[in-house]
Every structure is written in C-alpha cells, then in structure tokens.
C-alpha cells in the first residue's frame, strides 16, 4: 500500500509509492531505447490495460474495451495511489501519515501511435479536454478525494515512460501545498482589492502585449511575468471561472485551439522539446471562487533543477519572458 507522509516543518505531503519501488541503480537517467513489441495503448491491445473507465468515439453498438475509440481512459497499471481502502490517518510521534488512497488514471489521447497531442485537430483535442472534465465530475463523487491534478509528461526528459500520446490524472485525499499557496495568494489580492488577480493579469497582458503569445475569443496564451524556466507558457480563460469542470464544451473547444497552437509553437521554436503541462483548478466540491481562476501551465523541459533551486526555492531562468513571447509569436501555430 502506498504511504502519504506529511513534512512536519513546511506541511508538504510526499507519496511513498511502494508499488513503483525501484533499486537505487534504476534511478539513473539514460535515454530510452526505441520501444519495441506491442503498445498497450494501440487499438487491438485493449486487453493489455485495466478496463476502461471512460471512452469517446466508439459506436454505441460496439462492446467495451474494444477498438473503435477516439479517446480512452483507463486506470494506471502502476498507480502512485490506490483507490481501494480507507485513509486511516495516523500519528507516528510528531509525524502524520495516511494510507496512499487516491485514483491514478491514464487518458489515451488518440488511437494513432505516432501522433502527438500537437498533431491532433481542434475537434480531437476538444474530446481530450472534455474527457478531463468527465473524469473530474465522476471522481469528485468520491468524498475521500480533495483535489485532482491533470497533467501531461511528453518526452523522456519530462518523465514520460511510453511514447503513445497520453495524459494522466491523480486524485488526492489532500490539496497540494503549492495549490494552497496559489489559492491563498489569490485570496489575499481579492481581500485587498476586491478583484481576481488572474483577471487582472489577463487584462494587463492583453493591454501590454509584450508577453502575449496569442489569444482567441475565450483564452489568452502568454509568458508569465516571473517564469520558473525558459519558455514557460500559461493558457488562461478570459472570463472568470475557478473550476475547470464547469467549462462547457464550446469553451473547451477554444481552449483546445489555444493549447494546440501553443504546443506547435513551442515545438517549432525549440525543436520539439519534451514538456510538462498541468491544469490548475479549484479543489473538488469547493464552491465557485471569486478570487481563483483555473489555468494551464506548460513547462518545456529545457533546464534541470540543481542545488541552488532545491535549497532556496528560487528558480534561475536565462530567458526573459518578453523575449520568449516575441519568439513564439513569430512561429506558426
């Protein structure tokens, strides 16, 4: 059973994922060899994965866990957290722990093995983003879960272990400290100025345009004022919305348009780098917040975190966001 352990000094929770245990020698990072054999995410290999929990595109007359799908969601075969069991919160002296209860799912974005997310059409990418929403709406019915993080690791340097395009979600029994800090910072701004800080950022970036990469009717894409790494890029709705799962499909279609263009621009500018993206949203079952604003953060894997960053919490970024945005604006999306 995985373990959730709380750091008593800063309140940070750590997952001790015993199901994923490896020897220290296995932690050495080397470039992966080309994958051979059967891919569990390819059509026809559905029996190689756990049974699907969501599917889009398969005809209603077709049996489940069979080919014919466009997007497919399955439990992770090697989950960081397990869905079965009770939290069993305990104290061990001054330390706090609980069982590693949660959900860990894989969103297979396309049946085509050789297509990346940035290769998908806006309609295809919309179905992926709608699958994100559908899984949040389902998993929030489990009262053990407090937060769902949706994320993508693309490329070996970003932590991907399989080539086939996929995203992941992890449902957690606690709200991550980083999310709490973001929510509390937004709340302090709202208490002082009675405005959402994210809405203020959207307004300023659209006005100044120095860090703006692109915009459509509903979303803006920009390099944040204080990026942690080169070419960090945020995608944010123009209208205020704190909960990703509250977005209607027509607005998710415009988010898909913005996300696809962003990934293609980063690929064109940087030679198809590895990258991560994360969806930041309000905690599960929390009411709509006037101070928080959901968004997507895209992080190309161009630098490594070293001793100074680990020790200080500071990030060193050699590329000013204004230069990154100007470069991305010139790349076809």
UniProtKB/TrEMBL annotation:
The active site is at 166 (tele-ump-histidine intermediate). Its EC number is 2.7.7.12. Signal peptide: none annotated. One of its GO terms (biological process) is galactose metabolic process. It comes from the Bacteria. InterPro entries: ADP-glucose_phosphorylase, GalP_UDPtransf1, GalP_Utransf_N, HIT-like_sf. Residues 4-176 form the Galactose-1-phosphate uridyl transferase N-terminal domain. One of its GO terms (molecular function) is UDP-glucose:hexose-1-phosphate uridylyltransferase activity. Keywords: Carbohydrate metabolism, Nucleotidyltransferase, Transferase. It is an enzyme of class 2 (transferase). Pfam families: GalP_UDP_transf. This is Galactose-1-phosphate uridylyltransferase. It comes from Anaeromyxobacter dehalogenans (strain ATCC BAA-258 / DSM 21875 / 2CP-1).
